[in-house]
Write a structure and sequence with these properties.
mainly beta, 10 Kd Chaperonin, Protein Cpn10, Chain O, two-stranded antiparallel ribbon
């Protein structure tokens, strides 16, 4: 797959959540919510400021990020579901 986001957009792949609750109850696929955590797959060059300078994006490929629940656009590429987000929709980077 070759995909390059434009401007301040980021391509994120959803990370699978656990299928079992802390109490040991298995959650079926139909009852699961989409995760709010994902891995950055591709990053655009950044956003242009009012004076024409390029402001680079703070995340990089491979980062695990948290994002707003109802943000971005869902796309399917090569039978995998991704999310295209603006940098401002990313809440933070999870560190290992």
């Amino acid at each position: 797959m070759k995909f390059k986001p434009l401007r301040d957009r980021v391509l994120v792949k959803y990370l699978e959540e656990t299928e079992k609750t802390a109490g040991g109850i298995f959650i079926p696929d139909t009852a699961k919510e989409k995760p709010q955590k994902g891995e950055v797959i591709a990053v655009g060059p950044g956003r242009l400021t009012d004076d024409g300078k390029l402001h680079p994006i703070a995340v990089k490929v491979g980062d695990i990020v948290l994002f707003d629940k109802y943000s971005g656009s869902k796309v399917t590429i090569d039978d995998v579901e991704y999310l295209i987000l603006r940098e401002e929709d990313i809440l933070g980077i999870l560190e290992k």
